[in-house]
Records
---
Amino acid sequence: MKEILSDVERWREAGEQVVVATVVATRRSAPRPVGASLAISESGALCGSVSGGCVESDVFVEAQTVLETGEPKLLSYGISDDEAWSVGLPCGGEIDVFVERVE
Amino acid sequence: MSLVGKLVAIGERGERAVLFTVIEGDGVGRKLLAVEGGGVDGDGPPELAEHADEILRRGRNRLLELDGRRVFAEVYGPPPRIFVYGAVDTAEALCRSAQLLGWTSIVADARAKFATRERIPTADELIVAWPQEAFAQVAPDHQTAVVVLTHDDKFDEPALLAALASEAFYIGALGSRRNQERRRGRLLAAGVAEAQLERISGPCGLDIGADSQAETALSIVAEILAARAGRGGGPLRQAPHRIHVEVEEPVRG
């Protein structure tokens, strides 16, 4: 969350709920390092990234549920994933992304 | 104060901290914030704080596996520093390389005519002082790389002695092989243990055929990065391990 801290703070101060998705593990090749994160505000604003753009749209969808329920989620993406054809990493790696609502 | 507020405040004060988040197992989503040399905060397992110091020294985010839980540890803190003793031309080139990495650069020299803004415009900090005083002021820690560039024994030797007495994660010294040998003898005579001398990279830099000041700086900074990541610094094509520095499997505690 370090890279996106100022945006998260700004959105929170404006009274918005914020969900943060963070790369917590990578296996083989991966576009962004462990700790890279994407913040999504209640109104749909984005900052940061968790991949080169390959999985952000799916993370965005998952983030909506986390925003509503407050229950964090651990997502995995990569070639071994069922969704490899729709949401995958072209570099052939795998990433785990933890999605949580900022309390 | 909210967690985000605390993290912002830590950043503003230039402190270091580790934010632990349970991502799998008992208590998913719980967090523990451990500030270096200071307090612990949050509803995460308090025993996680024991790992903070080692994680801060490595300076990298990582995943831990502890008591059936997977815990993500994120490092907060100021960027690493490069402390150059010797305000020579290469010092300015090193500052530019440091700037490219987003690191902080500090240049010191006892000679006021050398340590000037005109000569070293890029340094984040310029200090005119003899080595002992300059090192006391900068206080190199485990996130500081020291490079000694004066080529003059009366500065280089006390600077290297001060660097060896610090926790600097990298100590480099310019100079020909012949000068390195001579310096080695003098440091041994000054009471430095043989094993301690192994901490000094001299001549510093990777073997990339560097010639100009900018090339030399790049070669030194590349060696500093390799030292920080525990890598040898050869071509990736020939590397036996993974390209990126993160551990492939979670570290078991």
Note: Helices of chain B lie at 3-13, 52-58, 89-101, 131-138, 153-164, 177-189, 194-197, 213-229.
---
Amino acid sequence: MTARHHHVPPVIEFRSTALTYPGPPPVEAFKPCTLRVGRGDFVSVVGPSGSGKSTFLNIAGLLDAPTGGTYLLDGMDTGALKDAERTALRGRRIGFVFQSFHLLPHRTALENVILGMTYNGVPRTERAARARQTLVRVGLSGRLDALPTRLSGGERQRVAIARAVAGRPSLLLCDEPTGNLDTRNAESVLTLLEELHADGMTVLVITHDPAVAARGRRTITIRDGVLDEQGPGVAAS
Amino acid sequence: MSERLDEVPDASQRAGREAGGESAHPRPALQKRRFGRRMRRSRSAAVAPSTFDIRDLLSESLAGLLQRPARSALTAMGTVLGVGTFVAILGLTSTTSSQIDARFSVLTATEVNVEDVASDRNPYAGLAFPKDADRRIEALNGVKDAGVYWTVRLDEANSVRSSPASKEGERSTVVAASPGVLRAADPTMAQGRTFDAFHEEHAEQVAVIGAGLASRMGITTLETHPAIFIGDTPFTVIGIVADVERKANLLLSVVVPRSTGLALWGEPTDEPAKMLISTQIGAARQIAHEAPTALRPDHPEYLRSIPPPDPKTLRADVTSDLSQLFLLMAAVCLAIGAVGIANTTLVAVLERTGEIGLRRALGARGRHITLQFLAESAALGSWGGLFGTSLGTLTVLLVAVLRDWTPVIHPGTVAAAPLIGLCTGLLAGLYPALRASRVQPAEALRR
């Protein structure tokens, strides 16, 4: 870490953050915990199905608001934000990668990546050039005009990753990024995530697969809505 | 893989500035200009709002429509039919009523009737029309033909018969008319001729009858100079009329010279005498104004002129009668079209839940989603409106060409129709679009 980074707040900071779904009966989906994910981290969150991974993703991705504690994204208290501001923050600071890619089937790879910059303030004139540059970066320079149906699973996920990072977010939030891929394609996607991390991107991968989780620099286990990490950074409160 | 993604100020630097108020790296001028206003509004939270300008809205909506062109076309079909019917109906009614006007100009607009109202004014006035009424009126500029006529009142004994011996008479009316009436009525003769000034002057016992009456009375040819009897008075039939352009009731009557009628049965008693005047085009109202004075300069009030009706009033009557019914049908078509658009948009919202979730994850606000779906349905409505207007106009043109009419469409109709389509689309898309905006992103992305 350089001296400058000491002034920069962590990307994710959970302070006794919790989420309870109102009942009846109330379900404590995410128990109060504290977590810090610093800039440039590569964190894996691993846990079996039903362990609270999705709840964690929804909180971290600003898709759901915690019912207890505080969640700071880039040092900003997200609890104080109005709905529109949370949406804007999500669009500008978080890049999502989903298991099922969520590419628009009738749009080319390039158009799908451009879509990722529609709502987060990237000027229209810059979008195509940036999208092209990002697709080249993820190794799809020859597939710019291909429709998703003409791409392999690995290529589709690369397009999705390009869409997530083209807007230059603080955090790349991946939900089972290799869940729909065969071993070879999964490997290429994980390598790409590692390369992005090496470039300085903060990456958070949520997975049920210990092998995928092992690729992270830090591994956090989630079980019954409780985060647990062997080492510094996370603590149940 | 040598290119780095964080060459420009990245999110961490933005975060530092926005959260801590650091301004080591000034915001690019373009961004500052574009978002300055919104930034001021939400300075407390220091989050630049999501963006979605009008060009984004248009391009996203257009892309949404074009990615399923067949479905979009079918969806718009309801509006096409509704608006098309609307334009066609309005166009056809105005075209038809202009045709009615055209016929009106040829016949009615060149016809003036003058009625004898002397008995209302003075019970002792007698027949208001002078003997030389035809000549007086025909001297007026713009008059083609003119004549006085009245229906003769006959008792049972004086019915029309083919021979004096036959007991059963025809219940035909007998009309005493000056020669000008038959000319003004513009008859088509089946056989023979009409009577003229000579017959009138000498009160000849001649008659002109309609073709129907002739066949009923067994008169097939005029070469034998057949006679009919009114009461016991014989009349030589000199003409059989096949058709008349004016005063169709002449076809059912026995028409005898005015002087003959006057001599045999006296002045009209039941119905007042009338005058039929045919004029040049455009002269009718003027003639109507002049006729009473020309006929009776001493007592113009004994005569009442009936000018042709105003064409504008006639057209308005016809148009309103026809179009009210058909406009209702067009409205029904439009309502069906709106339901079609609403239904398809609703299905599209359900189908595209994943896409809506993705857009929300990418930073789209609920209102951005609403606007997009609303723009899509509005575009479908407008497209349907434009296409429907073209189809409706073509229909009017086609009908007009086939019937050899002049097509008439009010410019307002053509201008309003696409707007009606737009409104239909907007109304139809409202509910689905609002529903789309309420889709929860976390929920939608799980699909």
Note: The radius of gyration of chain A is 18 Å.
